[in-house]
Amino acid sequence: MENNFKMVAKTLFGFEELLEKELIQLGAQRVKVGVRSVTFEGDKGFMYKANLGLRTAIKVLKPITSFRVKNEQDLYDKIYKIKWEDYMKCSGTLAVSSTVNSELFNHSQYISLKTKDAIVDRFRNQTGERPNVDLRFPDLKINIHIDRDFCNVSLDTSGESLHKRGYKTATNLAPINEVLAAGLIMLSGWDGQSDFMDPMCGSGTMMIEAAMIACNIPPNLMRKEFAFERWQDWDVELFEKIEASLLGRTRDFHHRIIGFDKSPSAVTKAKENAINAHLDEFMTIKHEDFFKTQKGGEKHLHMVFNPPYGERLDIDMENFYKNIGDTLKQNYPDTTAWFITSNLEALKHVGLRPSRKIKLFNAKLESRLAKYDIYPGSKKGKYMNQED
Hints:
With 388 residues, this protein is α/β, with parallel strands linked by helices. The protein has helices at residues 16-26, 44-53, 72-81, 108-127, 178-187, 205-215, 236-247, 264-276, 317-331, 379-387; strands spanning 5-10, 29-33, 37-42, 59-68, 93-101, 132-133, 140-147, 150-156, 195-198, 257-261, 283-287, 301-305, 335-341, 356-362, 365-374. The strands form 2 sheets. The chain has an 8-stranded mixed beta sheet with strand order 2-3-1-4-8-7-5-6. A 7-stranded mixed beta sheet has the order 11-10-9-12-13-15-14, covered by helices on one side. Helix 2 crosses helix 7 (236-247), helix 3 packs across helix 4 (108-127) and helix 5 packs across helix 6 (205-215).
């Protein structure tokens, strides 16, 4: 394949600039921010590096061609002309996923089917054999994106979504997506230079992502497989070299990561996942009701959490969010607290003024990531101390 080529990293709404920064730090070329995506250039080794090392990417796609398309037959003809034999064998397997935003086409599954037919027919007509469809573990995963009358054809380099890191074997009722958790922590400015707390830790995702950020551990080291490992040009030596270079950048962490949950089963799951991630040495996970706790020690505390929204858990939202505010105000001095919620009405009951609110989406729910600065003593005292 080519030396440098274009790639597209997909992400969540609001994380585009985080992903841009990550790509630049990893060494990507020609980085350009889009909507829920960032385009960049790199070689095959960088494709491996992006999949291993990006915290806020959901997928890394490799575009192979694009064209205008008039109707289903036009799509079929143009897909048929692509030299698919350069990318897979006739005895191989394939899967097609499609995203369609067009008045010309109204069914993404039909677009996937037409694409598959064109590829299969090309192989059958040329060799007498045809590849099979395997939706779970295909040798080649193809992504079709149609916007109005413009079609992008890409190879999916990642396979399963990159939020599936590989460390999580146990989840609770409303688990947070690993990419969302990492992005929230990065937006909060967490740099590993203080203690970190998730006071409603669930299955421990936020804590594990915080530990990986603090130690600069590549997030996808534990994944069983990436899609590119089934490609014809898969280079295991190059991959291992990239993996080793990323591992060489890890750093020490000298603070604590604390998690509370009032559900005993959630605490058990969080401990299990921390052990799976080989990060349990940094963690203290306890069966506690956050509203009955207080901060231990004098050091500054960085807190990021994902409280219940009410969509899947039946609780008195007004009272619950008031308790969050009261607990922070009374029991957690010198704390920076961030939490995400889709219950925008409930935010009004916290009783503290957020110093920042960032619009995000948790799945399809419009949400806010809110920041609360709890000062040591009063605000007035803090400012007076500064002036002294």
